[in-house]
Amino acid sequence: MKAQLQAVIVVPLVVSSLIGIFGLCGYGAVGLLGLPARLQLPWPLRGVGGLLLVGGLSMLGWIFRYRPPLQVLLSTLVTMRGALGVAAPPARDEPLVLEGPQRHLRHPMYFAVVLMWLGWWLLLDYTLLAFVALCFLLWFRLVVIPLEERELRSLFREGYAAYTRAVPRLLPSLRPRWP
What pTM was estimated for this model as a whole? Predict the structure, then answer.
């Protein structure tokens, strides 16, 4: 119960902090590059943003059909602890989930988050949101995914290695790549 409470408090705080940091980076980039705060995007393009936002939310719903949100928060907390070396992370006891969206890409949650930020950017037409999406993409690709994949390889060994050879990392395949 203690770990669940920590996960429900700590993970959203860390994510909120990242949003704030990436927002400040976006604001700074817009200023440094002399870009307008809004690009005056045409309405059809803003409609595409709405579709991307709905697509990202739908992806999250699909993910949560196979892996409950609390389980996602708990595994995220374990990974954060391991990454920061704050405390010895408790042993993971959840199975490797390779159903649903994980048959099309290895990191559907990160894909959904970037998709939603791109959707918000196009829909609301705030330039800094494009930079927030870029920061999240870079954060996931350069920091989180390598750490998480290293952890999953050590836990699930050859089963995960075979999965990584078959399924794309961050851009989904239209057809399932995993049985």
Answer: 0.92
